Structures are given as C-alpha cells and as structure tokens.
Amino acid sequence: MPLHTDLDAAPNVVPLPLGRQAPETPDEGQPAPTVTPAHPPVESGGNAGRTKHRRLMISVGVMFILMLAGAVFAYWRWSHPALSADFYVANGRLEATEVQIASKTAGRLAQVLVHEGDRVSTGQLLARMDTRTLEAQLRQAQAGVSAARQNVAVAQATVQLRQAEQRLAGQELNRARQMFERGYYSAQLLDQHQAQFDTRTAAVRSASAQVQALQATIAEALANAASLQSEIDDNSLRAPIDGLIQLRMAEPGEVLGAGGQVFVLIDLSDQYMNLYLPAATAGKLTAGDEAKIVLDALPGQSLPARITFVEDKSQFTPKEVETQDERQKLVFRVKARLVSPADTPQAKPGMPGQGYVRTTTAVWPATFP
After folding, report:
1. Pairing of strands 315-316, 255-256
2. What's the CATH number where 91 sits?
3. Is pTM, for the whole model, over 0.70?
4. Do 272 and 304 contact (CB within 8 A), yes or no?
5. Pick from 17, 201, 237, 305: CA 20 to 30 A from residue 48's CA?
6. Would you put residue 19 in left (φ > 0), alpha (ψ -120 to 50) or beta?
7. 129-174 pLDDT, tens per residue?
8. Domain boundary among 182, 215, 234
C-alpha cells in the first residue's frame, strides 16, 4: 500500500497580493468562511492636522489680499474724486503750428545745413538749391545794366553836342535877322538860317528822347537783375519763425519739383489741443475762457491753457476721437492753447492727454481724476 506524505496532500498555493491574507482551506463538510475586503489605510492624526493648517493659511492669505485690494481702491477713489458737473473732459493730442518749407522752383538741392531736432531762429539759412544757372543769368543781366548805362552816357553827350549846335544856329539866326533888318541880308538867307536853327532844335529833341529811351532800358535791365536775384534768394531756404525742425524730407543731390518739401518746422511757442465737445458744453464756452490740459506723460500736472477758438459749425465726431457719450455724433471743435509752453519743456507735440473745460465759475479742483 503506497505511502502518502503531507506534501502530497497539500493543495496548490497561489500567491496573493501584499496586504491580503490567504483564506484558510475549509475542512470538508464545513462552509467556506466569508472574506472581508481590505480597507484603505486611515490617515494618522498628524497628517490631518497639517492639512487643516494649510487650508487655514490659504484662506487667511486670500482674505488679506482682498482687504489690501479694497484699501488700495478706496485710497485711489479718495485721491481721485469724481469730476463735478461744472467741468467737462475730452481726449485729445497736443499739437503745434507747423510750417512747410519747400522749394519755390524746380531744381537740385545743393546743401542741407540742419538736422531733425535742431532749433532754428528766424532768418537762419536751412538749405540751398543749386543756383549756378541763375547766377550766370544774373551776371548777364548786370552786364546789360552796365551796357545800358554806357549807352545813356553816349546819348547824353550827343544831346550836349546837339544843344551846342542849336546855340550856334540861334546866334547865326540873330545876326542874320539884324543884317536883314539893316538891308544887308536877303529874305532867302534869313530863311536859311531859320531852317538851320529849327533843324538843330529838332536834333536836340531827338537826342533827348533817345536818352529817355536808353534810361528805360536801364530800368528794364535793373528789374531783370532784381528778378534773378530774388529767385536766387528764394532758392536759399530760410526759417520764417523760431522753431524746431520736426522732419527733414530731402537730402543733398535730390532733384525737387516746384513746391518740393524739404523741412517741416514747428512753432513750439504755439502748442494747443483740439477738443471735440457736445453742443451743450461748447455753447457755454467763449474765446478767452480758462482750460486745463493733463498729458498722459505728465500725470498729476495740469498745464494752464486758454480757449482761443470755438467752431461755429458742428461736425461729425472724428474717428480718432473718443467722447464720453459715444452716441454723441455731432460735436464742436474747441481749441485750447497752452499759456506758457516754455515753462513745461517736457510737453511735446504729439503727446496724448485730456483737456478740461469749465462751464461755470467753479473753482478748479486741485487734482483731476
């Protein structure tokens, strides 16, 4: 009879995952025991406390940030009070009077003596066109003036000669008349002396007229020379006002047509801002009223200005202008000019900002929102 060991009687063992207990093999005739599923591990008391502490700190930080933001907003509202109904604000851009400096006639640009950003004074030479052809014509005209003056001198000498001949003929006529009265000259001889005197007199008048004609040619030659000199002067481009070279639009050697632009000169003493206001506001403004300008580049600094122009005809709101009421389609252009631009050299044309006008006699606020 074969022998059986415990190893032969043991069932096949299947490894189970870690954390789970293998069920015991039930005896024959007994019900299988119920297997209870494994539960996840429960956090310890230390981990739970740290999580609650972290959540509490996050809540406190969020509350602190909200309180700080509220305090900042409250301070900003306190330091920037709302604008009262006595004032009106409009957006704009600082501008300055521009002068276009261009060539009068077509030609080649010979010299450019200034650059962008240079300050220039009235009468300063900025550029010069090529005037060699005009200068040659001027020399020719001046030579014509000299020739005309010489011709006048010759004609005046001829007049003096003819006047001398006239005097001699007059003297011979007087003697002939005396001889005729005494009976020594015939009437024929007297008539000959009379005709000779008349001829000399006519010659004097002819020579005098020739002098006048030649003097007219002198005046014509002088006018021609003056015209050429004026053209040469016009080809020397000079600053008409004190200002700043904003743009240099041509370089030496370029050929320009008549009216070709060379510079854009701005008058820094005449800076202004165009404001587009509704009829209800523009109707309360007149030339000479006070205004204030605040530039984006100079916040908190109001520049004194005065209303110098109020348009008497409405227009549609320009596309680049933002109004407080977008439904306001028709507006009036109002020009606010800086009182003392030299006191604020930081203010430059092109800077955006806001213009404030006053419709009543209210006191200007210390700061503007």
Report:
1. unpaired
2. 2.40.30.170
3. no
4. no
5. 17
6. left
7. 999 999 999 999 999 889 888 888 888 888 888 888 888 888 888 8
8. 234
Domain assignment of residue 13, yes or no: no
Residue with tokens 């002939």: 176
Count of residues in the chain: 369
3-class DSSP state of 274: strand
**220 and 202 share one domain:** yes
DSSP string across 134-192: HHHHHHHHHHHHHHHHHHHHHHHHHHHHHHHHHHHHHHHHHHHHHHHHHTSS-HHHHHH
d(CA 264, CA 117): 11
Same domain, 293 and 319: yes
Domain housing 122: 98-130+237-261
User: In the chain, how many domains are there?
Assistant: 3
CA 212, 213, 215, 216 torsion-angle sign? positive
- Report if residue 320 sits inside a domain: yes
Strand partners, 334: 275, 310
